[in-house]
Amino acid sequence: MSGATRKGLWYPPKRMKVVAIMGGVDLDYSQAQIPPGVSTIDVFALMGGVDIFVPEGVNVEVTGIPIMGGIDNRATLYAKPGAPTIKVNVITVMGGLDIKVKKPKK
């Protein structure tokens, strides 16, 4: 019944664990210094939600098990060869994962 947000300029690790239980987590990679190569995020959402925002061009690969929940990856249309890749391994139980592209402000 609470939440956590990470946004602005930050340096995400190559591997991260995210847990949302009856709450929400927002990870905004739009200004993050994403390391080259492959990074991994392990997500567990129980009656909660996780939103991940990525800049255009970042490759996002999702594998997971939604149990009475959902997974939505809208970043696949904007992926570019050679760009950093974020692999997301997710288990959701009555929760969800949304991956969205955050376009730069004009």
Brief descriptors of the model:
0% helix; 106 residues; 56% strand; mainly beta; four-stranded parallel sheet
Total beta strand runs: 9
Give the biggest beta sheet: 5 strands, parallel
Q: What sort of overall outline do the alpha carbons produce when their principal axes are compared?
A: globular
Strand arrangement, largest sheet?
A: 1-3-5-9-7
Order of helices and strands: EEEEEEEEE
Q: Give the averaged pLDDT, no decimals.
A: 94
How many helical stretches? 0
> Strand-residue fraction?
over 45%
Q: End-to-end distance, in Å?
A: 35 Å
User: What percentage of residues falls in helices of 4 or more residues?
Assistant: under 10%
Low-pLDDT stretches are none
What structural category do the secondary elements indicate? mainly beta
How would you describe this structure to a colleague?
This protein is mainly beta and 106 residues long. The chain has one domain (3-101). It contains no helices and nine strands. The chain has strands at 3-6, 15-21, 24-28, 38-46, 49-54, 59-67, 70-73, 85-93, 96-101. The strands form two sheets. A five-stranded parallel β-sheet has the order 1-3-5-9-7, with no helix packed on it. A four-stranded parallel β-sheet has the order 2-4-8-6, with no helix packed on it. The model has no long low-confidence stretch (mean pLDDT 94).
